[in-house]
Write a structure and sequence with these properties.
CATH topology of chain B: Ribosomal Protein S5, domain 2
Helix content of chain B: 25-40%
Order of helices and strands of chain A: EEEEEEEEEEHEEEEHHEEHH
Largest sheet of chain A: 5 strands, mixed, barrel
Radius of gyration of chain B: 18 Å
CATH architecture of the largest domain in chain A: 2-Layer Sandwich
Number of domains of chain A: 3
Strand order of the largest sheet of chain A: 8-9-10-12-11
Number of strands of chain B: 10
CATH class of the largest domain in chain A: Alpha Beta
Number of strands of chain A: 16
Strand content of chain B: 25-35%
Oligomer: heterodimer
Helix content of chain A: 10-25%
Radius of gyration of chain A: 21 Å
CATH superfamily of chain B: GHMP Kinase, N-terminal domain
Distance between the termini of chain A: 45 Å
Strand content of chain A: 25-35%
């Protein structure tokens, strides 16, 4: 059965599919109560925990939460702020007051232009889904080297593993710096061989992250690790 | 005798020209997740129709004037490829594709939980690669599977299906000859789990009894197609457990 839920029933449901009666059960995310029945609203696995039924979606968009560490791309520049693409339904707003530099009004473009990639943190998300980002904090910076990759949001746990164990394995295997953003964007910095290998690993997460065979596939991939110190 | 002019659409043995019974659907097959670049995608083969749908988003809605403060906007673009029919179609948007895009978007808006993503846009691209009557229904079905594949929250999987009238007889799922020379066409978008209708158009005339029979056929076909949709989505993730 599942790696995450030993002994628990795993059931794949599609939108509109009845999960069970709603009496006495709380409805969690990915589900809603309709005519005394809980129905799934997403394609995913049914999870039952603490008398709450929810659907763990196979795919979903990134919904920003306060405190998330993300890798964002500049989408628009104004005189005193940047609009950032955070790989979600809403753009993030980075005001110049939360940038790591002293920015004069009208000089935002001199620090970051469209397409620049940054490591930022979600400062605030209000009820209207306005997202404010900050680059004030340890390690938060503009990423000027390395490459950017994508991993489905729902497979981030698979990519990280228990206590970041899998991520550390990847770092060791490819000898690259890897930063995983909560928004599914992954920054990799290292030599070209290591980056190419990391890219294969991300493809594996994307295509097999939901499968039982993921661990075995990753172990097989690790055997093709680029050899270090051959040059 | 023939429905219109000398065209005969029903055989003497009561079957249709392609050998189907009156309430028999053309073969349907669905594959989910065929486009790696899209957030969700699907291909529906319905008889000789081939419809591909790709879903992108939810994403920031641009231009900003199209944003809705309380919900997402569903932007549908239905297009028939120039090579989809025997006679080459002039590429690009036309009145028909504009109309079908609009009605499809409205049908999908009633199913998708758009209030979850205010100010954003969900882009649905429907491309008809081969056409043989019933492309808007195949497009809606493909869009529903692609939306589910993209993880967009929905109340149900909407199914596009059509029935109509040829030679004063109600038939399910018109083919090209029946669509061109028949007396009526009734495409609907059905939510199989609740039995709701999210989209309905009618071309031609049907009596109340004929309409009821046509809808009965449509609901029966919708249940069959819904099973194929669910199977396609499950097949995509088979062997998988989170």
């Amino acid at each position: 059965m599942s790696n995450g839920q030993n002994g628990a029933e795993q059931r794949l449901v599609t939108p509109g599919m009845a999960i069970g009666p709603s009496a006495g059960i709380r409805v969690g995310s990915g589900a809603l109560a309709q005519n005394d029945t809980i129905i799934a609203t997403r394609l995913g696995w049914v999870k039952e925990f603490n008398n709450t039924v929810s659907v763990d979606p196979i795919n979903s968009a990134y919904m920003p939460r306060s405190g998330d560490l993300i890798v964002a791309t500049v989408a628009e520049v104004r005189n005193n702020l940047w609009f950032m693409n955070i790989n979600g339904p809403f753009q993030g707003l980075l005001p110049m007051s939360l940038a790591p530099w002293k920015v004069e009004f009208g000089a935002a473009r001199q620090h970051m232009g469209i397409g620049d990639v940054v490591l930022a943190r979600v400062q605030e998300v209000d009820e209207c889904h306005n997202v404010v980002l900050t680059m004030k904090g340890v390690g938060l910076r503009r990423l000027t080297q390395g490459s950017l990759h994508s991993v489905p949001i729902n497979h981030l746990d698979r990519l990280r593993g228990e206590g970041n164990a899998t991520l550390q394995r990847l770092r060791d295997a490819c000898d690259c710096r890897i930063i995983v953003g909560e928004n599914g964007k992954v920054w990799v910095d290292g030599d070209s061989e290591g980056t190419a290998w990391a890219r294969q690993a991300f493809d594996l997460v994307r295509n097999s992250g939901h499968k039982d065979t993921f661990e075995a596939d990753l172990t097989a991939l690790e055997k093709n690790t680029p050899k270090k110190g051959d040059a | 005798m023939g429905g219109y002019g000398d065209v005969q659409l029903l055989r003497d043995d009561g079957l249709r020209l392609d050998g189907r019974k009156l309430d028999e659907m053309r073969p349907v097959s669905i594959e989910a997740g065929i486009l790696p670049a899209a957030d969700g995608s699907a291909m529906v083969t319905h008889g000789l129709n081939v419809a591909v749908a790709a879903v992108y988003g939810p994403m920031e809605a641009h231009p900003r004037k199209i944003q809705r403060q309380d919900r997402a906007v569903i932007d549908v673009r239905y297009n028939m490829a120039p090579f989809s029919t025997g006679d080459r179609i002039r590429p690009g948007y036309n009145r028909r594709s504009r109309e079908i895009s609009k009605v499809t978007a409205e049908a999908l808006e009633s199913v998708v939980l758009v209030e979850r993503y205010p100010r954003s846009k969900i882009r649905v691209e429907i491309e008809i690669l081969a056409a043989e009557a019933g492309t808007r229904c195949a497009g809606i079905t493909a869009a529903a599977v692609a939306l589910a594949d993209a993880g967009i929250p929905m109340r149900d999987l909407i199914v596009g299906v059509a029935s109509g009238k040829v030679e004063d007889t109600v038939v399910l799922d018109l083919d090209k000859a029946e669509d061109n020379y028949g007396q009526a066409d009734l495409p609907v978008g059905i939510l199989p789990n609740t039995g709701e209708i999210a989209f309905l158009q009618m071309d031609g005339d049907l009596s109340p009894d004929e309409y009821n029979l046509a809808m009965e056929y449509n609901f029966k076909a919708a249940a069959e197609i819904h099973e194929i949709m669910v199977d396609a989505l499950k097949r995509r993730y088979e062997g998988g457990e989170n």
